[in-house]
Amino acid sequence: KTRMVAVANEKGGVGKTAMVVNLAAALALEGKTVLVVDMDPQHNAGTGLGVEITDNMPSVYDLITDPGAGAVRKAVVSTKWKGLDLIPSHIDLAGAEIELVDEEGRENRLKEALADIIGHYDVVLMDTPPSLSLLTINVFTAALEVLIPCQTQPYAFHALEGLFDTIADVKAEINDDLAICGIVPTFFDQRTRISRDILERLRSDARYRGLVFDTLIRTNTAVAESADAGRPVVNHRTGSSGAADFKALAKEFLARRPHP
Amino acid sequence: KTRMVAVANEKGGVGKTAMVVNLAAALALEGKTVLVVDMDPQHNAGTGLGVEITDNMPSVYDLITDPGAGAVRKAVVSTKWKGLDLIPSHIDLAGAEIELVDEEGRENRLKEALADIIGHYDVVLMDTPPSLSLLTINVFTAALEVLIPCQTQPYAFHALEGLFDTIADVKAEINDDLAICGIVPTFFDQRTRISRDILERLRSDARYRGLVFDTLIRTNTAVAESADAGRPVVNHRTGSSGAADFKALAKEFLARRPHP
Ligand SMILES: Nc1ncnc2c1ncn2[C@@H]1O[C@H](COP(=O)(O)OP(=O)(O)OP(=O)(O)O)[C@@H](O)[C@H]1O
Ligand SMILES: Nc1ncnc2c1ncn2[C@@H]1O[C@H](COP(=O)(O)OP(=O)(O)OP(=O)(O)O)[C@@H](O)[C@H]1O
Ligand SMILES: [Mg+2]
Ligand SMILES: [Mg+2]
Asked: Fewer CB near the terminus (10 Å): N or C of chain A?
């Protein structure tokens, strides 16, 4: 059964795209087949996977605004890495919220579009923009679980509360199957007090008990350099701490089942 | 004449809120009167300024959804620092885009609301969420200049192109007075190649010529610790590199006039 995973956090810059790109590649190294869906109009997941986005390329924008039979197969592109495919984003996605405002069932568009190809992959990882707009709601409707990168910084910690509220709303009103896979601490820096402090708060907060991954994603410049090179860190800088962390994350992700 | 400044960048986590909070406080230390307007539903600017947001407090949400005479004066709260006031955000802002979708002139709501109080301040700094939604457009319509924090990282650099396009669109269609104040490199870390690399690209790119501030905002844990304490770094850790950088930014901001 395909794991349909939303990678989300309304707080910006917490490492959502880095997690989608690098966890996807690490899972492919484990022999899994993975599809990345880039639902962020900034198309950073495409950039991070070295896929050039051209204007006439079918994208997730077409899937949600002009759903047609078999459209999803045309939108899938392969990457340079075996077992790792992408459905790219498009800048026009930014306007989709207003375009679909009067459409019945607008939150179901992505779920319906992906129905055709779900069985073909072990894992589908969906990147989201830093907002709780229609695009993120579409992803939450298509997903079965949510993986939450949480920067070990104050504002990102505060943002969890709002995110959990939104997930509860979606679960109650739109998608009863949505569960939380877990919270992954990111940008962890052992040397700074604030980072250790926020990690401690995450681990001791009763609301997040049992949800915090053991794996920490440490701040590591190799992750950013790899993004610049359009290659996942596990393929570009195999000996780096970034590569080690995302490989560890892939193993823990496969071992954990979402909390209903 | 009051400087009406939007602090914006669609890329998440680049230091928009840190810049609004700390530049505002540094300008107040220079003897200026400053109003912060928090247009991000995550209300991080309020948190960073130590202002407790309670549910029944008037906020910028009331100003744009139910504009009434004199409403803005009721929404202004003072902070602990002389010359530094805030109009807080509210979680309901997240729904404003849909609420206002059929309203004529919905992009002008903030501008109209602020008209009453503009002359009372030297500078108005407006924080924006990491998206180009109606909230950010409202800020661009009320603003006369845009200050752009740009993390010295690959995705943030790529995001500038989209942001410049949006600003050009707003200028052509809604607000002819909107100009670019400048681009401020943030999260600069002299030790990492990627950071030096992106700074070099910013400074040499013909599109951004003359717009990049000399002041660099370095990565400094004191900035994050101060945010956690609800105090600007220039007041909380006065000897830190973060405090030094934001004081230098205030001086350069006052010396620079926006490029029309
Ligand atoms: N572990 C890490 N160490 C160092 N840099 C990182 C790490 N993870 C991500 N980065 C870099 O930090 C920046 C922010 O990360 P990223 O863009 O993945 O966050 P995001 O949550 O997707 O942001 P947005 O909210 O804009 O979508 C990027 O430039 C990325 O390359
Ligand atoms: N110069 C700095 N050094 C260290 N940490 C910083 C610095 N500037 C900001 N931070 C921290 O990094 C995180 C991201 O910064 P901030 O929240 O200000 O960015 P933002 O652009 O406002 O994010 P969003 O897109 O979510 O609104 C915050 O936790 C903040 O405290
Ligand atoms: Mg992203
Ligand atoms: Mg912010």
From this structure: N
Q: Which amino acid is at A201?
A: R
Q: Ligand 1: residues within 6 Å at CB? A: A 12-18, 40, 44, 130, 187, 217, 219-221, 223-224, 227, 242; B 11-13, 130, 153-155
Residues 6+ apart with CB under 8 A from B63: B71, B72, B75, B87, B109, B110, B113, B114
How many CB atoms within 10 Å of residue A193?
12
Residue A84 zone, left/alpha/beta (φ > 0; ψ -120 to 50; rest): beta
The predicted model gives B93-101 an average pLDDT of 86
Q: What is the mean pLDDT of chain B?
A: 95
pLDDT band at B66 (very low <50, low <70, confident <90, very high): confident
Q: What share of chain A in percent tops pLDDT 90?
A: 86
CA atoms within 13 A on the CB side of B207: 12
Q: Cα of B34 to ligand 3 centre, how many Å?
A: 32
Using the Cα atoms of residue A57, residue A58, residue A64 and residue A67 in order, give the sign of their dihedral.
positive
Q: What is the mean pLDDT of residues B89-101?
A: 88
**Other beta carbons within 10 Å of B82:** 10
* Ligand at shortest distance from the CA of A233: 1
What are all long-range contacts of B251-255, with beta carbons under 8 Å and residues at least 24 apart? B251/B30, B252/B213, B252/B214, B252/B215, B253/B23, B253/B27, B253/B147, B253/B181, B254/B27, B254/B30, B254/B32
CA A165 distance to own-chain centroid? 19
Instruction: Give tens-digit pLDDT for A83-113.
Output: 999 999 998 998 888 888 888 899 999 999 9
CB A23 within 8 A of CB A125: yes
Rounded to 10 degrees, the C-alpha dihedral A235/A236/A238/A239 comes to -170
**Which residues, in sequence order, are bridge partners of residue B36?**
B86, B125
- The arithmetic mean of pLDDT across residues A120-142, rounded, is 95
Name which of A17, A129, A158 is nearest B131 (Cβ-Cβ).
Answer: A129
B16: closest chain A residue by CA: A12
Q: Tokens at residue A128, please?
A: 């989201």
Residue B21, ligand 2, Cβ within 6 A: no
Structure tokens given for B7: 């602090």
| Atom 2 of ligand 2: nearest residue by CA position | B219
Distance, in Å, from the CA atom of A222 to the CA atom of B3, rounded to the nearest integer, reads 40
Q: ∠ CA(B100), CA(B102), CA(B107), 5° rounding?
A: 55
Contact between A224 and A216 under an 8 Å Cβ cutoff? The reply is: no
Alpha-carbon separation of residue A13 from A153, B11, B187, B235 (angstroms)? 11, 7, 12, 26
Detail the DSSP E strand segments found in chain B. Answer: 3-7, 34-38, 77-78, 84-87, 123-127, 145-151, 179-186
Q: Which of A33, A15, A11 is nearest to A24 (CA)?
A: A33
